[in-house]
Design goal:
Chain A: This is Branched-chain amino acid ABC transporter permease. The complex is a heterodimer. Chain A has 21 helices and 4 strands. By secondary structure, chain A is mostly helical. In chain A, helix 4 packs antiparallel against helix 5, helix 10 packs antiparallel against helix 11 and helix 14 crosses helix 16. Chain A is globular. By secondary structure, chain B is of the alpha/beta class. Chain B has one domain: Rossmann fold, CATH 3.40.50.300. Chain B is about 40% helix and about 25% strand. Chain B contains 11 helices and 10 strands. Chain B starts with a helix and ends with a helix. The chains are: A mainly alpha, B alpha/beta. The interface between A and B is medium-sized, with 28 and 34 residues.
Chain lengths: ~525, ~250
């Protein structure tokens, strides 16, 4: 009855009205992410004990002690725009609860506010440099909190500007928008948290390594639907390959660039070896077998099988590579840049793989093994390939890890590593590459930054409110509580992850288990 | 489905060699014997029905042909070539299309993606495109639903997609496992009309049915399976007249 439409008020077509797509998820992650970054940058200077270098611990300090007029204006601009950005998600939630679309004029307003905030932050940055009589470009004062705060603020405003200024694009082309925000973020990461350069660099490198691991595990668990609880084993194999072939241990010194490929090859071989006997297993049974494999590999390394692995002490003094004249041992940040390149290449390859024939075969296999076999999919080689590809990415990560830390020991690859990688993909969204990136970033950020700083923050808080015991808390030992709580909360609240993949979304709505191929064949 | 398939089946019919032949096939599920010396032949361009009660081994027979289940004894020949040692994916590529029991669609893929999976092992893009058209022509309903998730379709539509998916591999032999299961009589009638149409296009059909009357009216010949063994076989009209078949399967 089309006539009736004239009498009705047209329903606004909004992301909120439609099904929860990954576009809205991306929007929410951006919105909350920018608010959090700004909040942190704001709180950061308040929670860190002043060190010796005097001027300029917070943007506020810098600004208020600069020539009066500019300073006051900047303070107000920053305060107002930050407040807008921090309250934005609240506004979104309010409109969502009323089941209405956020008016577009608000988006435009917020976009403009974010750009103004960004410009003011750059002004603060320049002022801070002038005040501290530092050059505008070049070596940054490594003890300055201001720089961290400034970088965080800038990142927050940039994300906010993209989120609200180009909201339609963000919701319609989520992965493109995500890439556009994530790439510069990744490039700026080591600069952003400049409070203790070595530690932040180590955190950024760990993030890249964990991101690779999560992307690799996602191939096995997300794409092919094979639950692997012993994924750290392949990480270990990659790391030990690197350690054995680039250290005085066996007097072999191959460059890292060769070892990346060797590590990938050796790990994928082991992936196939593990895959072969587990082909007929599914679900719980497969998980248990992989769990066993994940225990065996570090144990073999501990027992120094064939005198190859150096026992409990592992292998030390692993070579650090060079790229032309740049020595990675002395220029640690180059590990991060090369890892970033590897992560980007892996992401591009995996995206193509997901859309390829093999990707479709994995989806079919996950859906219904019997039907997949009947349509001409070789279930054996398809599964083995998932294991092998997943393992090879882990092998690359392992080779880098070995080279970065220069010492590998069996304890580095115990069960908890497998659990943390799994938590990352569960948090982000199993089967969704964007989700996996978000998940690995979020968890590494909490573990390496929030938990580390919580010690200091609670100490300061304890001093302020006169509860000195707060200073004795050691939050960095609560890593596994974070993983545990993440897994529980995600399963309860959003089982598809922060950005669920399309298949998972449907799966969670319909549910249901299919008869396995092994059952059909009368083997299980 | 004209093209090569028709030429092939024509040649086979001329030489008198059956397209599909089972010789003394035994299947064991652990210690349980599901099939006992099953022999059957399917000639080129035929529709052959396999009838029998629950647990008689009909589905097992089809699964054995398509390689999902391995025979413990006996042999299966496709156009004279033994296939019982091959994997399911190889058999599918050799031209055995299987629309399995319970349809088994990829419920979280769209109808189009399901059909596309049927053509998984094919490389000829143009051929696949024309087969899409062919399937949409046979099942206009499937075309209407092509963008929908397969899991959201009605039973009849799902069965059409299942047959369509099997057809996308351009099979010489199409194995249909209880296409009428759980469908309304009018839907079943339409479905069987299309099955006959597919057969007239040159595809040989081996059909399982609980509804023996429908099966035998559609097929040229039939086999009756009882507890894993071929109890009787013959041209459909003969089976329909046989007192035992009438009593056991036609309820007369």
């Amino acid at each position: 009855m089309p006539r009736l439409g004239l009498l009705q008020r047209p329903q606004p077509v909004t992301p909120q009205a439609g099904p929860r797509g990954s576009g809205t998820s991306t929007f929410w992650i951006f919105s909350l992410g920018s608010a959090m970054l700004l909040l942190m940058s704001w709180l950061l200077p308040w929670f860190v004990r002043p060190t010796s270098s005097g001027v300029g611990y917070s943007p506020m300090d810098v600004v208020t002690s600069s020539p009066t007029g500019i300073g006051t204006i900047l303070v107000y601009i920053l305060a107002v725009t930050m407040l807008i950005m921090v309250l934005s998600p609240v506004l979104e939630i309010a409109y969502r609860l009323r089941k209405e679309a956020t008016p577009r004029r608000f988006d435009t307003l917020r976009g403009i506010a974010a750009v103004i905030g960004l410009v003011s932050t750059v002004a603060v940055f320049v002022l801070a440099r002038i005040m501290r009589e530092e050059p505008l470009f070049g070596q940054i004062d490594s003890h300055s909190i201001t720089d961290s705060a400034v970088w965080l603020t800038m990142a927050g405003y940039i994300i906010a500007a993209v989120t609200y200024g180009a909201r339609q694009r963000v919701t319609h082309r989520p992965s493109l928008a995500f890439g556009a925000v994530a790439l510069p973020f990744g490039l700026l990461l080591p600069l952003m948290f400049h409070q203790a350069p070595d530690f932040i660099l180590w955190a950024a490198e760990s993030l890249a390594v964990y991101m690779l691991l999560a992307l690799g595990l996602n191939v096995v668990v997300g794409f092919a639907g094979l639950l692997d609880l012993g994924y750290a084993a392949f990480f270990a194999i990659g790391a030990y390959t690197c350690a054995s072939l680039a250290s005085p241990k066996h007097s072999i010194h191959l460059p890292l660039w060769v070892l990346i490929f060797l590590g990938a090859a050796v790990a994928s071989m082991f992936g196939a070896v593990l895959g072969a006997p587990t082909l007929r297993l599914r679900g719980d049974y497969l998980a248990i077998v992989t769990l066993g494999f994940g225990e065996i590999i570090p144990d073999l390394a501990t027992n120094n099988v064939g005198k190859l692995t150096g026992g409990p002490d592992g292998i030390s003094s692993i070579d650090q590579p060079a790229l032309g004249p740049i020595h990675f041992g002395t220029n640690k940040e180059w590990y991060y840049w090369s890892l970033l390149v590897v992560v980007i290449v892996v992401i591009i390859l995996l995206r193509n793989l997901e859309r390829s024939r093999m990707g479709r075969a994995w989806v079919a296999l996950r859906e219904d093994e019997v039907a997949a076999a009947a349509t001409g999919i070789n279930t054996t080689s398809t599964k083995l390939l998932a294991f092998a590809i997943g393992a090879s990415i882990s092998g690359i990560a392992g080779a880098f890890y070995g080279s970065i830390v220069t010492v590998v020991t069996p304890q580095d690859f115990n069960f908890s590593v497998s659990v943390s990688i799994l938590s990352m993909i569960v948090l982000g969204g199993i089967g969704n590459i964007t989700g996996v990136i978000v998940g690995s970033f979020a968890l590494t950020f909490v573990i390496f930054w929030v938990l580390q700083n919580l010690n200091e923050w609670s100490g300061t808080l304890g001093q302020t409110i006169n509860v000195p015991t707060l200073g004795n808390l050691n939050f960095s030992q609560y890593t596994y509580i974070v993983y545990g709580v993440t897994l529980i909360l995600m399963m309860l609240l959003r089982p598809g992850g922060l950005i669920p993949s399309r298949a998972r979304q449907i799966e969670l709505k319909s549910g249901g288990e299919e008869e396995s191929l092994a059952a059909v064949q009368g083997r299980a | 489905m004209t093209g090569t398939a028709a030429v092939l089946t024509g040649a086979d019919a001329g030489s008198g060699m059956p397209v599909l032949e089972l010789r003394e096939v035994d299947v064991l599920y652990g210690r349980v014997q599901a099939l006992r010396g099953v022999s059957l032949t399917v000639g080129a361009g035929e529709i052959v029905a396999l009838i029998g009660s629950n647990g008689a081994g009909k589905t097992t027979t089809l699964r054995t042909i398509s390689g999902l289940v391995r025979p413990s004894k006996g042999s299966i020949l496709l156009r004279g070539q033994p296939i019982h040692t091959l994997g399911a994916e190889k058999i599918a590529r050799l031209g055995v299309g299987h629309a399995p029991e319970g349809r088994r669609l990829f419920g979280r893929m769209t109808v189009r993606e399901n059909l596309d999976m049927g053509a998984y092992s094919r490389k000829d893009r143009a051929g696949v495109r024309s087969d899409f058209e062919r399937v949409y022509e046979l099942f206009p309903r499937v075309k209407e639903r092509s963008g929908q998730l397969a899991g959201s379709l009605s039973g009849g539509e799902q069965q059409m997609v299942a047959i369509g998916r099997a057809m996308m591999a351009r099979p010489t032999v199409l194995l249909l496992d209880e296409p009428s299961l759980g469908l309304a009589p009018i839907v079943v009638e339409n479905l069987f009309a299309v099955i006959r149409e597919i057969n007239q296009g040159g595809t040989t059909v081996l059909l399982i049915e609980q509804n023996a009357l429908l099966a035998l009216n559609t097929a040229r010949r039939g086999y009756v399976l009882e507890v894993g063994e071929v109890a009787t076989s013959g041209p459909s009209q003969e089976l329909l007249r046989s007192p035992e078949v009438q009593r056991a399967y036609l309820g007369m």
